[in-house]
Specification:
This protein is mainly β. It is built from one helix and 29 strands.
């Protein structure tokens, strides 16, 4: 089933860049690191709800404005933010850079997959079938063939082929909960279920058949998943406060608890050096984990209730969206 809406927004509708000032590095950053915050809100934007981020490939960073229905593009050299309105009722959740260079968004407010052109910022929308209204879209990823796979917390997973514009959606095998999704370097597509407390592999990309993999910690609240270069899957566990690692090659698991009394791990991102970055809401911090020495380094926000959502980055830079403060945070490392 195919349903598409194209929003041909004018230059004025896209809004002119607003020039913003980046905050200085935090004095408390450990040696070898530098932390910088950027304002996400532009004049008149109201609350942005800056959340999931992804590198745009040219030094700029895309981030979702879940509260004001926008996708935004930050230039860290100047602090300028380019605002793209995704449409009436928009509430974007996740964003990734596609193989075509565009930003692809799970647009929960309009129950659609959105594409924002990297050049002219034109918005295209492909709505889910009416049978799957209010899917609570979460996260997307492209497979090696250029097909876009996505999850919805209300119990769905699906795929969209940009070439044919064919949209297919299925009920998840255990109902509510599908959340983070990832592609391994070996081409595998995996997702985790927050409400369902499990890891799942889409083991047949033709039939979309799903295989459930049980983590060792019961009721762990698996929230996000990200692979390292070896294809091992790193999982942030919201309920348990653990970061776990599953190796599909031998079926093994390892588990580490984040520091602090009551951690809750939200985001997970693995950098090009295979170091693991997480966010911990109760600690109000981003946390870096080194699997080699099993050590943690913490980067608390300088404002309360930062609530950093899904991270991303490039070599030497980790990025996140502080959804509670309407800021974007960058941690430079290896300095």
């Amino acid at each position: 089933m195919r349903r598409r809406a194209v929003l041909a927004l004018s230059g004025s509708a896209l809004a002119a860049p607003a020039w913003l000032r980046a905050r200085p590095a935090a004095a408390s950053a450990p040696p070898g690191y530098r932390v910088t915050w950027f304002d996400a809100a532009t004049p008149g934007s109201g609350r942005v709800g800056s959340r999931d981020v992804t590198a745009a490939g040219d030094g700029t960073v895309w981030f979702c404005g879940q509260r004001n229905g926008t996708l935004n593009r930050l230039d860290p050299k100047t602090g300028a933010v380019r605002v793209v309105n995704l449409g009436q009722g928009a509430a974007p959740h996740g964003v990734i850079r596609g193989p075509d260079g565009a930003a692809w968004v799970t647009e929960g407010g309009q129950n659609a997959i959105a594409r924002v052109d990297a050049g002219d910022h034109r918005v295209q929308l492909w709505r889910l079938p009416e049978r799957f209204a209010n899917a609570n879209l979460n996260t997307g990823v492209f497979d090696d063939r250029g097909t876009y796979w996505f999850t919805g917390q209300n119990g769905i997973y699906g795929r969209f082929d940009p070439r044919s514009e064919r949209m297919e959606v299925w009920e998840a095998p255990r109902g509510r909960g599908p959340y983070g999704i990832a592609r391994t370097p070996q081409g595998g597509i995996w997702y985790v279920s927050l409400a369902g407390n499990h890891l799942a592999q889409i083991e047949d990309l033709e039939t979309a058949r799903v295989r459930i993999v049980e983590p060792p910690t019961p009721n762990q609240g698996a929230r996000r998943v990200w692979p390292d270069k070896q294809g091992r899957l790193w999982i942030s566990e919201w309920n348990s406060g653990n970061v776990s690692m599953h190796d599909p090659r031998d079926g093994s698991w390892k588990v580490w608890r984040l520091p602090g009394e009551r951690p809750r791990a939200y985001s997970v991102w693995v950098d090009p050096a295979d170091k693991v970055w997480l966010t911990d809401f109760p600690a109000n911090a981003i946390v870096r984990f080194d699997p080699v020495n099993e050590g943690f380094v913490s980067f608390p926000s300088d404002r309360p209730n930062a609530n950093v959502r899904q991270m991303d980055g490039i070599a030497g830079e980790a990025w996140g969206g502080e959804s509670g403060t309407d800021r974007i945070v960058r941690i430079e490392y290896g300095l």
